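Fold this complex.
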Amino acid sequence: MFSLMGGVFLGWALGANDASNVIGPAVSTKMLRFRTAAAVAALFVLAGALLQGSSGVHTLSGLTGMGLTRAVISSVAAAAAVTIMTILRLPVSSSQAVVGAILGIGFFNRQVNFSGLGKVVVCWVGTPVGGAIAAVLVYKVVAFLYNRVNLPMVPSDGFLRIGILAAGAYGAYALGANNVANVTAVFVGAEHLSMTLALLVGGLSIGLGIVTFGRPVMNTVGSRLVQLDSFSAFVVLLAEALTVHFYTFMGVPVSTSQAIVGAVLGIGLLKGTSTVSRKTLIGILFGWFLTPVVAGCISLAGAAIYL
Amino acid sequence: MLRIIFKKQHQVQVLIMKYLQALKMTQESFVLALEMCLGDDKACVDFDVLTDETHRFESHADDVREEIKTLMYGKILLPESREDLMRLLDGIDHIPRYMEIVLNIIKTQRLAIPDFLVGDIRELVSASLEACGLMSLQVEDLFKRKGRIKELVSVIDLKESQCDKIERRLISSIFDSNLDGFQKMQLKELVIYLGDISDQVDIISKQINIMNLKRRV
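Structure:
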């Protein structure tokens, strides 16, 4: 039971870092209080994890064969790396942290299965690019329909409010479905948890992270990278959710942070690159590079101490 | 169905229509009060009563405006819309305030309006209030989407230019007259405040147009 705390820590760290990706716009536009938004997101994360989380767990658990101690070391290492990035207010990829941590142990044991890694790395590049493409397409289609319907002020506001809430809930569902694998796949691989229990623990711990420590990264994507209006916020959330859900069907855990940053940049490119804060973007890219490296180093150090 | 879901948002819309109605009552009362001092006898009978009534309507409009603001601070509408509406209401609020100032100048300074100015002042007030009416239509359009906002901007702009011309003509007439210097300054102040009504309407009209354009993506 104690060994599972590593997974719960990782789930909590993931939820805390990724909360802004699903509820950031609803909270920063003051449509919902943080607590309400976080509670709704936590519920949808749990639903996503339980209903569609298993395919990602299969992919990650087959990446490297490791025992329980190794699973705990990799989880704690990934969680520590993500928590550091959360404190630095950087939206990072928990998937990269987990893969970095698994590789750290894999390198220590000389047991890395590179065949599965290729698919994951391709998806890492594909996620922000996919997010950007999805954002541009969604923006074009929804903007065309929105302008054509030409709603007066109150119904137009209502449409955007419902849109942001629905897209946020969908994003939370996709987050749970896709990222639960990062949290508990290693325990399934180590045959320490059944699939159902792994999905439940993963979903609950991600939800806990959203509710208890979701605030720090909240403004980095929503306002520092590009100032988003409500319509763009809706498009970004929808594009992010669609991108992450797409990868869920492929059984590859990807980062909601990378999907949403890609989507935000897609909107930024549509509206002119001058709207994008280069300083914030460089910080985010640096965080993406650093996360798997830090997680890998921590897990390598952990392996050296405990194995 | 949508009205049930967005009950509070709909309430904002209802209150804004109520605010426009209060604005209209203020305008009507203002014209009645001013007419008391523009008539042939210039006896200003009931002027004080009508000035007080104008103040009451203006206060009522203020109350409705505060009610709308309180409702909007309760996180009704999106922040952009909230900000736009707050700015719009604050802008519109200047109009009844200018009307009250005009009446108070007449009341507190015991200002008599000379005959040679009456025609132009009536024309200025009439054109200004027409512009106000058109602006109210624009506000309604924001909530009902009848597609007249852009078209009304041009009409209001023309009205404002017309008011500017009358205002200049009035000031020239005042300074060409044999009135004493102090009275000239009093009348000039009165005319400038009357002219401010259409200037403010023009500013608001353009603001409404931008609010409308911002709604397109």
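Chain B has one domain: 2-214.
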